[in-house]
Design goal:
Blueprint: H1 18-38, E1 49-57, H2 62-73, E2 81-88, H3 94-107, E3 112-118, H4 121-125, E4 130-133, H5 145-166, E5 172-175, H6 180-189, E6 199-201, H7 204-218, E7 225-226, E8 229-231, E9 239-241, E10 246-248, E11 254-256, H8 257-261, H9 264-267, H10 270-286, H11 292-307, E12 315-320, E13 332-339, E14 345-347, H12 355-378
Parallel strand pairs: 1-2, 1-4, 2-3, 4-5, 5-6
Antiparallel strand pairs: 7-10, 8-9, 10-11, 12-13, 13-14
Helix pairs in contact: 2-11, 5-6, 5-12, 6-12, 7-10
Amino acid sequence: MPALGLQGRSGAEGSGTASDQEADKAAAAALLLLEEQQTPKMVAQTNPKPPIVVAVTGAAGQIAYSLLFSLGKGDIFGYDQQLELRLLDIVPMQERLNGVVMELMDCAFPLVQSVVQTSTPDEAFANADIAVLVGSMPRREGMERSDLLAKNGNIFRVQGNSLDRVAKKNVKVLVVGNPANTNALICCKSAPSIPDSQFTCLTQLDENRARAFLAAKLRVLPIQVKNVIIWGNHSSTQYPDVSHACVENRDGSTVSIKQAVQDDAFLEGEFVEMVQNRGREVIRARKLSSAMSAAKAIGDHLRLWWYGTPEGTFTSMGVMSDGSYGIDPGIIYSHPVTVSAQGHVAIYKGLEISNYSRAMMDKTKEELLQESVQALDIIRL
């Protein structure tokens, strides 16, 4: 295997000669510098930018609880970007949401200009620049998937109608609540005056999981793992693809993931299953779904959408398919995308697709096509 990471010469961390340890310290410092160079510049300015309106649904829930702190602190849109927060949740959750609002006030974030607590979508989405749709009906024991789609179809139809009425036409809508891809499609179809390009769903959490697993196997930092792709549905059929991914060495050179791992059976077997089933494993361990990691992934997704993807890299987002890579147009399917500095999301074109990848991509496509037909029929769009 090519030399990788911070421990390539001496094996276990901390072993080796003093000179080796000094070299490793220098390598660690170089990697931190690399991460800093590849992170959007968000340094606070003397004159902060005018506030943007950020709406968050399911705002009394676990994911929002972690997300709102990052938003208020400036970690997502920048340390000079003022915010007006609009927090939406259902009527039975208003007392709990009031506690969240009190905590936001107690944080005394200098960037948060106002906080609105509401159970009314039009109030939450009025003039919104960003809408993060976290809230959805969870699947309960004994509930058929068709029942889940029906319940969420109505939720996201109402929210899409509201966005269409009152949000800015260039609002960036990120759907997180599951089934995220199909909920995003329903929301998009319910807001015909807002371009399809403004609707995405979250698969950054799956990409982060994949990069973290690969980094652990190679004993490198996740920041060194580039261009992993999540294809398809945010479900157990998703396909984490490393065919075009690479790992960046301490000297700035890159090695393909396949060459670095040298184990195709792992990459097409255990690795895929680990990513596909990670959410289930978290629930089994915590007795609750992913929250901290989901909030982190939302922040990563929004930051890339706001600032753009670094040159030479792409990221994974659920976006409206346009026929690229043999995926039927008109479904929200996770693709590799690039984002311009102006926030324009474009499917990254021209990647070679192996027979194995084609089979995996088609499997998750078929699931999404079935979901989409059923969901759109339920809400009669």
